[in-house]
Amino acid sequence: xxxxxxxxxxxxxxxxxxxxxxxxxxxxxxxxxxxxxxxxxxxxxxxxxxxxxxxxxxxxxxxxxxxxxxxxxxxxx
Amino acid sequence: xxxxxxxxxxxxxxxxxxxxxxxxxxxxxxxxxxxxxxxxxxxxxxxxxxxxxxxxxxxxxxxxxxxxxxxxxxxxxxxxxxxxxxxxxxxxxxxxxxxxxxxxxxxxxxxxxxxxxxxxxxxxxxxxxxxxxxxxxxxxxxxxxxxxxxxxxxxxxxxxxxxxxxxxxxxxxxxxxxxxxxxxxxxxxxxxxxxxxxxxxxxxxxxxxxxxxxxxxxxxxxxxxxxxxxxxxxxxxxxxxxxxxxxxxxxxxxxxxxxxxxxxxxxxxxxxxxxxxxxxxxxxxxxxxxxxxxxxxxxxxxxxxxxxxxxxxxxxxxxxxxxxxxxxxxxxxxxxxxxxxxxxxxxxxxxxxxxxxxxxxxxxxxxxxxxxxxxxxxxxxxxxxxxxxxxxxxxxxxxxxxxxxxxxxxxxxxxxxxxxxxxxxxxxxxxxxxxxxxxxxxxxxxxxxxxxxxxxxxxxxxxxxxxxxxxxxxxxxxxxxxxxxxxxxxxxxxxxxxxxxxxxxxxxxxxxxxxxxxxxxxxxxxxxxxxxxxxxxxxxxxxxxxxxxxxxxxxxxxxxxxxxxxxxxxxxxxxxxxxxxxxxxxxxxxxxxxxxxxxxxxxxxxxxxxxxxxxxxxxxxxxxxxxxxxxxxxxxxxxxxxxxxxxxxxxxxxxxxx
Lengths: 77, 658
Fold this sequence. Notes:
Order of helices and strands of chain A: EEHEEE
CATH topology of chain A: Ubiquitin-like (UB roll)
Helix content of chain A: 10-25%
Number of helices of chain A: 1
Number of helices of chain B: 29
Shape of chain B: globular
CATH superfamily of the largest domain in chain B: Aldehyde ferredoxin oxidoreductase, N-terminal domain
Low-confidence stretches of chain B: none
Largest interface: A-B, 28 and 56 residues
Oligomer: heterodimer
CATH class of chain A: Alpha Beta
Number of strands of chain B: 17
Largest sheet of chain B: 6 strands, mixed
Mean pLDDT of chain A: 82
Distance between the termini of chain B: 27 Å
Mean pLDDT of chain B: 97
CATH topology of the largest domain in chain B: Aldehyde Ferredoxin Oxidoreductase,  A, domain 1
Number of domains of chain B: 3
Structural class of chain B: alpha+beta
CATH architecture of chain A: Roll
CATH architecture of the largest domain in chain B: 4-Layer Sandwich
Radius of gyration of chain B: 23 Å
Structural class of chain A: alpha+beta
């Protein structure tokens, strides 16, 4: 299955194609995305991702076409 | 035309003449409304060389095409004029509840010319408009005056009010226009222009509706946007102390990639903009000690006092601007600060926290809350005022200003009481306050003694509290016709907007080294142009910056504009309108003798000399080359910034500029 991943800039992009998609086997969970992005364990508590803009657990099973987004901090004022 | 009211109100304050003008459809088709309509109208009607504080200048109070249409996050109004601060194009925008009230009175904009012989305010409802005596509110602060005018003009519903405080009355060149009890359209000196016209306020009480082409479509799309934003929430474990670490991560990033703007909405919903208070210290975004310092000068034990959670600790309720689903605003209880002079204040924006925090090495958050309310009521721009205070402190530190000059105030870094005392003088123009009340450029000219080295400004306007050395694209945007503005765009915003999915010429952000953002290139120039054109469309629609950076996946301006107007324009065609608006803003400056080259950031803003500490140490931007490439790609002369004939022909601007 293919899922759209908006990764944080410190992630590894090796497993994301040019269009921003990651191919995963059926039954993959959010934690698999973290592993493929090589998110450092220490950052897990402050860097979190949503699936289809909802907070879910790392064990949440993903579906084809899901959107996984990492928190991005944008300034302003 | 659908989405607009098709006319504007023109008020001659010298003669008292008030009349409505029909706006031809072709003007809306070429400029939309909002800042686009304002740019067209002011370019056409303000003669070259007009005194910004004189009767020939025009002050516009302008609404957007999407405002009051059932679209979401499109409730911002714009003030437009010739800026007395820069001598060129001036605009500023603000949220709250005022924007739809303009269209509910049956017009897209109200344009004021002339100078009233006495203080007046404009009252307008669906039946018409009239000028009324404002002697009883002249001298009142903006919040007091708004309350009085709302009481005396109230009928079935409470009217909306745009008003100046004492700073605007005193024609401070860094004053703005206030609505909703302390929100402020702050930049470009728009308040000074209103004060120069002796126009205290605009009171609006209409009830009209705005017809749009596809109401059902807009309703469905708004529901889709609202659902996404509603579902986007920070998890409970996410606390304010984490933001410095997030900033550290940002500072370490080696690559750039596309981001999902919806996630930023999570932060804005909970905190508003104050997250940058601490995040910006570790990634270098916050300017420190009058733009010459870093986190080395304002250490963790100091900046942690400005933790966003400490700001939220005073928040008693959240609020949303008109049509907004994000809701970054809040009301804070400050009744225990400084003897309870003020009961509450709007949650201070990051810009205010930074300009009166790290910029002057002040870690007294209570004082920042107090200053926020004091300046909101006076109608003074906190960004410009903060830069000016930091400038004055540096002058004092170097012995150029003394206690004899300041009326006994001993200015020093981090002294909140001295800062407040100085601001009180600036609002009333007392003593040293009169020297400083018009911003750093004018102040350095008045003081002399080589103080221009401490005067941090871009083209006469003090820069927003974001360091271009973190985001070089922001530096390009600082060279905007309203120079020094942080709300035009930046790479971090561009990366979340995904314009390349809609606009054929907008560079796609895939993944590339962050270092490439520091190298002048056509790609970075085109990113800047695309971001600018889209921002002009946003400002013409009445859209909010925080909706814009959600990106076209979540808040698609092109789609909403077509639903409102009934047009079937492509994104490229809309971006041509955005390009036209930006080009007219640039042409306005040239018409009025402002050299675009003077709007290119210099000195400390570009990193000359470079910082010696913090995440951005050692960086000096090649901003001149970045701007040159941007101008070239825009179709403006790459050396002078003057739009080329070819572009003027392409954009069909010949008739306007003849």
